[in-house]
Specification:
By secondary structure, this protein is α+β, with helices and mostly antiparallel strands. Helices cover about 30% and strands about 25% of the residues. Helix 1 runs parallel beside helix 7. The longest helix is centred in the middle third of the chain and has 24 residues. The protein is globular. The mean pLDDT is about 95.
């Protein structure tokens, strides 16, 4: 089986600190640049799962890089270069402590809440009589707080964000504008590939007083996609949608009695399960980009990254 990179401990020239997130390891270079390594770790229900998924980091990094490049006309973003298949380097931003989640359809956690009787999410009122996977009349924004590692992200309303001073009214207006414009672009690109962009999240920060799009964009970790073909038929029959996202991992965990709650144990991730998750990620890459995925195999991943990043920083 292919190797998975689940842990990094690099020491790059000018490195001031490192932050190990759920999936990414972020290296601060001279308080100017960030080297973001997309590892093969996988998380669900805010828990890092015990096995890494080969090629997942490469897939996420390369999809994000393509979408960052395809949206520079909408808003500035943090990316400067991708010196390695698993690495992006960009400008250091001061992140807003909220994630901008935008939903075009009622599904996932929003559907679970709706089914239990909830009719307002993050201050957004939801119409009565909706069904699972139904399209909203217009996309809705349902932000969450950005929790520290090991803590759950919490839903938050626009009013609460402003009240807590997490963004100024002017900043928040721009975050909303960028979020909806990016979602529209992502929807258009997905449609050309026979997919529906169902929901996604964006993270923003400021650099020299300007708001930048940060982190990943339109990857299977941050987004949910349905296949367009058969969507309407499945919806009308009340059948589950065929989807490309990390939701299948969550569903597998829930089917095996795990939802990240205290006392619950992560089910065994057999080599067959791990390989099936890799295959689903490759499938999404090829669908969303329209390109064949080229696996970077047979190398010492950490050594390759170290060399590629060092060469880039030396320029």
């Amino acid at each position: 089986m292919a190797n998975a990179l689940t842990n990094t401990e690099f020491n790059f020239k000018g490195q001031k600190s490192v932050y190990h997130g759920k999936v990414r390891d972020v290296y601060n270079i001279n308080d100017e640049k960030l080297v973001m390594v997309a590892t093969d770790r996988i998380s669900a229900f805010d828990v890092i799962l015990p096995e890494g998924i080969p090629f997942k980091g490469q897939i996420l990094n390369q999809i994000a890089a393509k979408f960052l490049d395809a949206t520079t006309d909408i808003c500035p973003n943090w990316k400067l270069a991708t010196p390695d298949p698993m690495v992006s380097v960009g400008v250091m931003c001061k992140g807003f402590p909220v994630e901008m989640i935008v939903r075009g359809y009622l599904c996932g956690s929003a559907w679970r809440a709706y089914k239990s009787g909830v009719r307002e999410i993050c201050g957004v009122k939801l119409p009565e009589g909706m069904k699972e996977n139904q399209k909203f009349p217009e996309p809705i924004i349902t932000p969450t707080t950005k929790g520290e590692i090991g803590t759950h992200d919490e839903d938050i309303s626009k009013e609460e964000i402003l009240k807590q001073g997490l963004a100024t009214p002017e900043e928040y207006a721009l975050l909303e504008k960028y979020t909806l414009a990016l979602f529209k672009r992502g929807t258009e690109i997905a449609e050309k590939r026979g997919l529906i962009l169902v929901d996604t999240k964006y993270e923003f920060g400021t650099h020299n007083g300007t708001i930048y799009l940060m982190d990943e964009i339109h990857t299977p970790d941050s987004s949910r996609y349905f296949y367009k073909d058969g969507y309407q038929e499945r919806f009308e029959k009340g059948e589950p949608q065929k989807q490309l996202s990390k939701e299948f991992v969550r569903e597998w965990l829930m089917d095996n009695g795990f939802q990240g709650k205290e006392g619950q144990k992560v089910p065994e991730m057999t080599p067959a399960i791990v390989e099936s998750i890799t295959n689903r990620y490759v499938e999404l890459y090829e669908h969303i980009t329209g390109e064949k995925f080229v696996k970077e195999e047979g190398v010492d991943i950490a050594a390759r990254i170290e060399k590629n990043v060092a060469d880039y920083l030396a320029k």
